[in-house]
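Chapter review: from sequence to fold.
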Amino acid sequence: MKKASSKVADVLEQKGDSVSTIQPTDTIATLSRRLRDEQVGALIVSADGRSVDGIISERDVAYALATHLGELHSMPVSALMTKTVISCAPTDKISDAAKVLRENRIRHLPVTDGKTLLGVIGMRDILIQRLDDIRHSTKKVTHLVNTNA
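The token string follows.
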């Protein structure tokens, strides 16, 4: 009895579909406070809260500090955000999402259904899901071994 490969939707179900977004016109100072207060590494940039206009991470802010120094805090998020966003679908396999993260050297992957934002997953979320899958499989094997002993 083989279990189907875990899907991105399984991660969202476990994690929840709450997604933090920020307006493209908000300042980097606002972004920094939100990253700290929400204890997240990135926010989805969205003018309407449902679509993905971009993504901005703590790394973007750290790298911009070297160039923009004192003016950084007043710059709009749109000036630093990544506009070409790599995303995945809820029906994608977890292994495929992990490969996308690894190959593109990114840590946050928006989950979309068409143009609608459903959630965000990261490598940590994928690792947790994979460990849960392993625990589940181990319990099944242990049960089978104990039943047949």
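Two observations follow directly from the output. The mean pLDDT is 90. DSSP finds six helices and five strands in the chain.
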